[in-house]
Amino acid sequence: MSVTITDKAEFKERVRGWAEKLGARVMSISVRPMTTKWASYSTTGRLTFDALLLELREELQDYVIAHELLHFHAPNHGKLWKSLMRAHVGEYERLEDELRRVAHDRAMQRTGFRRR
């Protein structure tokens, strides 16, 4: 996997573009280290993204951005959320699986385990 480091300002601008496209209200966007998830979106419109996300390719970043912003319209991962993800991201399950593998590999690296 090639590593892409995205500038924070560029990333935040992409988030604003997605928010406009998806009709989601965003009051603030922050990028900081997070330990257990890639991002969160509060009901007040506050978005927080894991800083490590900036090292991933844009397609994975966009998956996480859309995933969080669509919670503005669908608070859970039910049928509505899934249909919105499919409409805006396409085959999101493939990206979800890849992101899960990336998270697993990083967790293993933190604990000292190496994949063979």
Short overview:
The protein has 116 residues and is mainly alpha-helical.
Main pleated sheet: 3 strands, mixed
CATH architecture: 2-Layer Sandwich
Number of domains: 1
CATH topology description: Zincin-like
Task: State the strand order across the main sheet.
Answer: 1-3-2
Strand content: 5-15%
Give a verbal description of the structure:
By secondary structure, the protein is mainly alpha-helical. It has a single domain, classed as Metalloproteases ("zincins"), catalytic domain (Zincin-like, 2-Layer Sandwich), CATH 3.30.2010.10. Helices cover 50% and strands 11% of the residues. It has four helices and three strands. It has helices at residues 8-22, 58-69, 79-89, 92-111, and strands at residues 28-32, 39-41, 46-50. Strands 1-3-2 form a three-stranded mixed beta sheet, covered by helices on one side. A hairpin with a 4-residue loop joins β2 (39-41) and β3. α1 packs across α2. The longest helix is centred in the last third of the chain and has 20 residues, at 92-111. The protein is globular and about 40 Å long.
Summary tags:
single chain, 116 residues, mainly alpha, Zincin-like, three-stranded mixed beta sheet, 4 helices, 3 strands, globular
Topology at a glance:
Blueprint: H1 8-22, E1 28-32, E2 39-41, E3 46-50, H2 58-69, H3 79-89, H4 92-111
Helix pairs in contact: 1-2, 2-3
